[in-house]
Structures are given as structure tokens and as C-alpha cells.
Specification:
By secondary structure, the chain is an all-alpha fold. Helix content is 91%, strand content 0%. The two termini are 49 Å apart. The chain has six helices and no strands.
Length: 319
């Protein structure tokens, strides 16, 4: 990300420094002429020399300002795109956070379901075991009643007056036992189905929970990557904004200097005497000498420093 900022700064230097240096070099030539000509009426050739210096300074400064302005506009476009990408990354991060929470909630629900189904299974198994015992008891009773019925029929053959009541009682108890057996068998079938259903549900829970854990871990990894991406994009956005601010300071400096030169350029046909234009010319000289950290990409270049040093020496000698 810092490489992008360096790329912008290097491009700014490449595009603006050559015309800027040409422009201030023309102003340096103008300073030499101002010192030499003073406030006298200028000869045609002297006036032509000043016009050439002013025209070249204006052309080069305008080019430098235009290049700087174009680069800043390009940075604005890039900044808007980066802001859009950052918003999209934040949206994806939020979506992942919500999806992760949903998966966690589902996992909690599955865990609770597993405990619930396991309890239901244990209860169903216990009920089934109890029912199986009841069924065994009922079947044993049916066997006893069947035996009793046979005994009753035998007594009827041997002693009719005793066998008939006994056969009736055994027949009644046998029917009751058969009905109980039928109900118990029906309940056993229901419990068998319930146990099987609970076992299948528990099996599904036990297989689904590890899958959900894998999904959660994957979402966590994706979320971490997205968080890092958002963080990097935020840093890039801030760095780009800082670089843009630095370049805008330089552009403002260029724009101000170019504006002053443009005013002088508009009066170039009247350069037969320097005296009326000296306040503006001095303002241009002062603007060039204003060097600080805000316009360091221009002012701190060694070639610019060389021109500024010469300009200061000329103005110092003239004073």
C-alpha cells in the first residue's frame, strides 16, 4: 500500500518538476533582467527579453499546474474506488460475522437437541425394557391360562359339576390375558419405532455436529482474512488520503505561483517599464522562495534548490 503512495509521489515529481524547474529558471532570468534594467524605460530588445522570460515562465508553470491537477484528479478517482471497495469489504465482513453467528446458534441448538434426543432415547429404551418384561409376564400368564383351560376341560369330562364353573373362570381370565398381551405387544411395537427414530435422530446429530464445527472453523478463517483485508484497505485509504493532502499542498503552491505569473503574462505587452509591475514581480520572487515541508516534493529537489539559491543571491545583491 505504501508503494502506491510512493508511486503517486514519484509520478508527481516526474510530471511537475521538469516544467516547474523550467518555469522558475525563466523567472531567475527575469530576476537578472530586473536587476540589470532597474526602473528605466526599456529598449525594445530589453522588453522582448522580459516578454520571452514571462511567456516561458507562464507556459511552463501552467504545464506543471495542469499535470499536478490531473494527477490529483486521478487520485480522487482512485480514492473513490478504494472507498467503494472498502465499503464492499466491510459488507462482506459483516455478512461473514452474521453467518458465523447463525452457525454458532445452530450448533448450540444441535447440541441441545442431541442431549434432548439422548434423554428421550434412554427413556424409550427403559420403557421398552419394561414393556418387554411385561410382555414376557403376559405370555407366561397366557401359558398358565391355556394350561388351566385344558385342566378345566378335563375336569368337565371327569366331574361335570365341578369342571363347568372352573372352565368358565379360566376362559374369562384367558381372554383378559390375551387382551393384555395384545396391548403390550402394540406398545412394544410403538416403543421399538420410537427407539429406532431416536437412534436415527441421534446419529444424524452426531454426524451433523462435526460438519457444523468444520463450517464454523472455515468461517472463522474467512472472517480473519476479511478482517485483515479490511484493515489493510483502511490503512491504504488513510495513506492515500495523506499523500493526496501532501500533493494538494504542492498543487496549491503551484497554482498560486502560476496565478501570479499569469497576471504578469497578461500585462506582457506593457513591459516597457518594470516599475509599475515590481510589486507583482517581487510577489513572484517571494513565492518561489517559500519552501517548507508542505511543498517538499517541489521545493526540496536539488535542482530547484540550486535555482532558488541563485535567485536569493541576485535579490540580496540588488538590495
Amino acid at each position: 500500500m505504501s508503494s502506491d503512495c510512493e508511486r503517486y509521489e514519484n509520478r508527481f515529481r516526474d510530471l511537475t518538476l521538469p516544467p516547474f524547474i523550467n518555469g522558475i529558471s525563466s523567472i531567475l532570468s527575469l530576476a537578472n533582467s530586473v536587476t540589470a534594467f532597474g526602473s528605466k524605460e526599456l529598449e525594445v530588445n530589453e522588453s522582448d527579453q522580459l516578454k520571452q522570460d514571462v511567456e516561458k515562465a507562464y507556459t511552463e508553470m501552467s504545464k506543471a499546474e495542469k499535470e499536478a491537477s490531473g494527477l490529483i484528479n486521478a487520485m480522487t478517482t482512485d480514492s473513490l474506488q478504494l472507498a467503494k471497495d472498502l465499503d464492499e469489504a466491510k459488507r462482506k465482513r459483516k455478512s461473514l460475522e452474521e453467518e458465523l453467528q447463525e452457525k454458532k446458534d445452530l450448533l448450540i441448538w444441535l447440541e441441545s437437541q442431541r442431549y434432548l434426543i439422548n434423554d428421550q432415547l434412554q427413556a424409550a429404551r427403559s420403557n421398552l425394557h419394561h414393556t418387554e418384561n411385561t410382555l414376557n409376564t403376559a405370555e407366561a400368564r397366557r401359558g398358565e391360562k391355556l394350561t388351566g383351560r385344558d385342566m378345566g376341560l378335563g375336569l368337565m369330562l371327569l366331574v361335570p359339576c365341578v369342571g363347568i364353573p372352573m372352565a368358565i373362570d379360566y376362559s374369562k381370565e384367558l381372554n383378559s390375558t390375551k387382551n393384555l398381551l395384545k396391548e403390550v405387544e402394540k406398545e412394544k411395537l410403538r416403543l421399538d419405532a420410537e427407539v429406532k427414530k431416536n437412534e436415527e435422530e441421534l446419529k444424524n446429530c452426531n454426524s451433523e455436529i462435526p460438519e457444523r464445527n468444520k463450517e464454523i472453523e472455515k468461517l472463522k478463517d474467512n472472517l480473519m482474512r476479511m478482517e485483515r483485508e479490511v484493515e489493510m484497505m483502511q490503512k491504504a485509504f488513510r495513506a492515500l488520503a495523506d499523500t493526496k493532502t501532501k500533493l494538494k499542498y504542492c498543487h496549491n503552491y503551484l497554482s498560486s505561483l502560476q496565478g501570479s505569473v499569469e497576471v504578469l503574462y497578461n500585462f506582457r505587452e506593457d513591459l516597457y517599464s518594470l516599475e509599475p509591475h515590481m510589486p507583482l514581480i517581487e510577489e513572484i520572487f517571494n513565492d518561489i522562495q517559500q519552501q517548507n515541508s508542505q511543498n517538499e516534493l517541489l521545493a526540496y529537489d536539488s535542482r530547484v534548490q540550486k535555482v532558488v539559491k541563485k535567485l536569493r543571491a541576485i535579490l540580496k545583491d540588488a538590495a
